Amino acid sequence: MKLIITKHNLGLWAANHISARIHQAEKNPFVLGLPTGGTAEDMYAALSSLVQNKKLSFQNVVTFNMDEYVGLAPEHDQSYHYFMNHHLFSHVDAPAENIHILNGQAEDLTAECAAYEEKIKQKGGIDLFLGGVGQNGHLAFNEPGSAFDSRTRAVQLTQNTIEANSRFFNNDVRSVPTQALSVGIGTILDAKELLFLANGPKKAQAVAQLSKEEITPQWPITALKTHANAIMLVDEEAAGLLEGKAKEELLRQQQENPDGDWILTL
Ligand code: GLP
Questions:
Q1: Over the stretch 128-170, which tens digit does the pLDDT of each residue have?
Q2: Whether the CB of 133 sits within 6 Å of ligand 1
Q3: Alpha carbon distance 234, 257 (integer Å)
Q4: 8, β-bridge pairs
C-alpha cells in the first residue's frame, strides 16, 4: 500500500482522484464504495461542486455505502442515509436506483446484509472503495478483532466508537446506537482499489500502526497493507506518530521536497 502524506486538502485530493477514475473507466457503471464521517465532508463538497460545474457526472456511477446504524430511520438527522443525502446525493445527478445504503431498520438484519453482498456482486464488484478510519483503527464499523475475511453483517460498536461518535448526538453517549450494519473487511478488500482518509492528531495512533511490521485484526487499519492497490491519504498531524523507517523516509522526503506530497510504500 501507499501512505500519502499531503499538505493539500484531503477532500479535494480525493475528489480529484475519484473524478479521474470515473472519467477513465471503461466499465459502465463504475461502482463506488462510500463512507460517512466528518473526514468525508470536504470530499463530498468537492465532488458536488465538480458536478455542479459540469466537470463530473454520477449518471453512470453506482454507489454502495459502507455502513448504517441499526434502528435509526432514514430521516433521522444522524442516520447515514440522511448524511449522504445532505452531503452528496441532493447535490449530484446520481439516479436514485443506483444508490445503495444498508437498511438499519430491516426486520431481518442477516437477510439485509446477505442481499447487500449479492447486489455488490451483481454490479461486478466495487471499483473504488473510499473510507475513513476510526480512532481505534476501525474501517467502516469493523471494530478491533474483526476478521480480515468478514462480510457485511450486524456489529456491536465499542465504547470508544460510541464516545467518539457522541459528538454528533449532542455529546449524549446514551443516544448513540450500540449496533450497526457494516460491510466486512473482506468486502472492502475485494474492491479493485482503496482510498482511505484520516486527518488530525486523534487518528495518529491508528495511522502509526501502518509503520509497524505487524498486520493484525486488533488494528483493522492494517488490513489495508494486504491490498495490492490501496492508498491511505493523511495530513501531517495524522502522520505525527509514524515510527522507524517510515518516519525516517518521511523526514527525508520532507527535506528534499518541502511542499509534498510525500509517498511511503509500506
Ligand atoms: C464512523 C464511521 C466510519 C468512519 C469513522 C471516522 O465510525 N462508521 O466509517 O471512518 O466514523 O469518522 P470521522 O471522519 O468523523 O472521524
A1: 999 999 999 999 999 999 999 999 999 999 999 999 999 999 9
A2: yes
A3: 17
A4: none
pTM: 0.97
Phi, then psi, of 65 in degrees rounded to 5: -80, 155
Q: Looking at ligand 1, which atom is closest to the CA of residue 35?
A: 9
Pairing of strands 2-5, 179-182: unpaired
Dist CA 14 CA 86 (whole Å): 19
What is the DSSP-derived secondary structure letter of residue 94?
-
| Distance from C-alpha of 14 to C-alpha of 83, rounded to nearest angstrom | 18
DSSP β-ladder status, 179-182 and 67-69: antiparallel
For the Cβ of 201 lying below 6 angstroms from any atom of ligand 1, the answer is no
Q: What is the CA radius of gyration of the chain?
A: 18
Structure confidence by residue, pLDDT tens digits, 173-208: 999 999 999 999 999 999 999 999 999 999 999 999
